[in-house]
Amino acid sequence: MAGYKETPRQKMIAMMYLVLTALLALNVSKEMLDAFIVVNDSVELTNENFSEKLEETYQSFEKKFQINQNKVRPYWEKAQEAQRLSNDMVEFIKQMKYELIARTEGITVDSAKQVEASEIKNIDDYDTPTNYFMGDSEDGSKGKGIELKKRIEEYRENMLSLIDEEDRDKIKLGLKTEGDYRDADGMPLNWIQYNFYHTILAADLTILNKIITEVYNAEFDIVNFLLDDVDAEDF
User: Fold this and answer.
1) Contact indicator for 230, 89 with CB cutoff of 8 Å
2) Is it the case that residue 234 has pLDDT exceeding 90?
3) pLDDT digit string, tens, across residues 111-148
4) Three-class SS of residue 188?
5) Of 10-19, 50-59, 166-175, 210-219, which range is least confident?
6) In whole angstroms, what is the distance from residue 175 CA to residue 179 CA?
7) Short-list 130, 149, 126, CA closest to 200
8) Whole-prediction pTM value?
9) Over 76-139, what HEC string results?
């Protein structure tokens, strides 16, 4: 099989992550906070566009299903499951964002849903977000971070189960939570520490939105793979 080639969409996600990492390495000034908000707004816009593109893909899939339900049904049902899994994952992450804003700002979760990033007063707070994700543990095992990590791993496994095992290496799904993470001094960190320990709210919101982008990317790749399988069967 030929080597895997990243799509422009995946390259864009990687570039956003590099920008975010670079910002985290800088001292947080007013200019840096503004930069975080710009990046965050850009990621949110990307997610909106992703959602629209996915809807077009599902519409195309459904048309094929209506034409030949017997043949397309197995693929269509898997695509619908991919949509359900992804919607649940995205809603879970969005709820985390609202809870995080609510705690940091001292407002209700419902009020947090209406707040734009540029309107958050404590956008540079890192104590409250760190406590939210890490809890009273150093490794994040007693905070919301471990719940997020487990949900990502479960989502990834469930999405891969929708395609045949021999085809799974054809898709670079992303959303990996294991790797060689280190701090500025080269000391090893786990995924939770690397992403959420002593990071300001502006960075946390951007990271969570980036994960949503990766979820949409995974959904898009899986559903299109299933759609291609329908066409391959015709061929």
Assistant:
1) no
2) no
3) 999 999 999 999 999 999 999 999 999 999 999 999 99
4) strand
5) 10-19
6) 11
7) 126
8) 0.85
9) HHHHHHHHHHHHHHHHHHHHHHHHHHHHHHCCCHHHHCCCCHHHCCCCCCCHHHHHHHHCCCCC
